[in-house]
């Protein structure tokens, strides 16, 4: 029985995480110039996934070039120096992780980066200030370079602030909403809010308990103008 056959017999009783490490070790022994990984974390539970991430970061810091295919943007954020987003067989955006995920070029990239708030607006100028209005007559204050009369506004859930009384800061986008649903999430609570258009907001457990809110209550949504990122994308 040769060594390869013996290893195959030995790995039959190993866990997924151990198998991943053995497969990685076998590859690294050959001193590859480029390491290609296809969803290496997909089948692992949370603790094993964290362990494998530490291994991959250590390998990369040691000078090993790695191309890692993943559908989980959180893996890309924690592991990558650069990212390329592929759609319909072509790279539609690439660059540093922060740049790609904070300035997505279209709805597909924005969705991949975890954004859930999208608003199609018609843009107009009001006394020198750019504004956008949705089909449900929700009006946003906007900033940035806007090249089209109609565009897409994206908003990260964590950038939404909630208050029981209306904020005084007129520089913010401020809307009155109704809490439609409260859902436990990984980071605390997710709130689905109806302000004419639907918003998704994330709160930590501490923030949620401090607000002491319930479904069907009214609450004020606010966020900085800069948090409403405009995408000059005409496609849905």
CATH architecture of the largest domain: Beta Barrel
Give average pLDDT, whole number.
87
Q: What is the oligomer described by this structure?
A: single chain
**CATH secondary-structure class of the largest domain:** Mainly Beta
Number of helices: 7
Record field, number of beta strands = 14
Walk across the major sheet and give the strand order: 7-6-5-8-14
Structural class: alpha+beta
Q: What helical percentage do the residues reach? A: 25-40%
Overall geometric form: globular
Biggest sheet features = 5 strands, antiparallel
Distance between the termini: 58 Å
Radius of gyration: 23 Å
**What is the number of independent domains?**
2
Low-confidence stretches: 1-14
Measured by DSSP, the beta-strand proportion falls in: 35-45%
Helix-strand sequence: HHEHEHEEHHEEEEEEEEHEE
In CATH, the topology of the largest domain is named OB fold (Dihydrolipoamide Acetyltransferase, E2P)
Account of the 3D structure:
Strand 5 (117-126) and strand 6 (129-133) form a beta hairpin. Mean pLDDT is 87; it is low at 1-14. This protein has 2 domains: 3-80, P-loop containing nucleotide triphosphate hydrolases (Rossmann fold, 3-Layer(aba) Sandwich); 117-231, OB fold (Dihydrolipoamide Acetyltransferase, E2P), CATH 2.40.50. The protein has 7 helices and 14 strands. A 5-stranded antiparallel sheet has the order 7-6-5-8-14, with no helix packed on it. With 236 residues, the protein is of the alpha+beta class.
């Amino acid at each position: 029985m040769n060594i390869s056959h013996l290893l195959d017999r030995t790995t039959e009783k190993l866990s997924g995480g151990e198998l991943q490490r053995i497969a990685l070790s076998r590859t690294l022994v050959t001193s590859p110039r480029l390491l290609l990984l296809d969803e290496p974390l997909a089948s692992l539970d949370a603790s094993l996934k964290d362990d494998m991430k530490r291994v991959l970061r250590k390998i990369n810091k040691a000078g090993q070039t790695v191309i890692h295919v993943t559908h989980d943007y959180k893996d890309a954020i924690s592991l990558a120096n650069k990212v390329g987003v592929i759609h319909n067989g072509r790279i539609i955006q690439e660059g540093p992780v922060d740049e790609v995920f904070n300035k997505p070029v279209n709805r597909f990239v924005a969705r991949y980066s975890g954004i859930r708030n999208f608003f199609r607006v018609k843009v107009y100028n009001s006394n020198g200030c750019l504004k956008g209005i949705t089909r449900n007559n929700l009006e946003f204050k906007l900033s940035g370079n806007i090249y089209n009369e109609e565009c897409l506004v994206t908003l990260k859930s964590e950038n939404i602030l909630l208050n029981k009384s209306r904020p005084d800061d007129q520089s913010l986008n401020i809307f009155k909403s109704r809490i439609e649903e409260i859902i436990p999430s990984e980071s605390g609570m997710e709130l689905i809010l109806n302000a004419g258009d639907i918003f998704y907001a994330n709160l930590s457990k501490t923030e949620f308990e401090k607000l002491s809110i319930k479904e069907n209550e009214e609450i004020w949504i606010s966020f900085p103008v800069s948090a409403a990122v405009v995408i000059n994308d005409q496609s849905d």
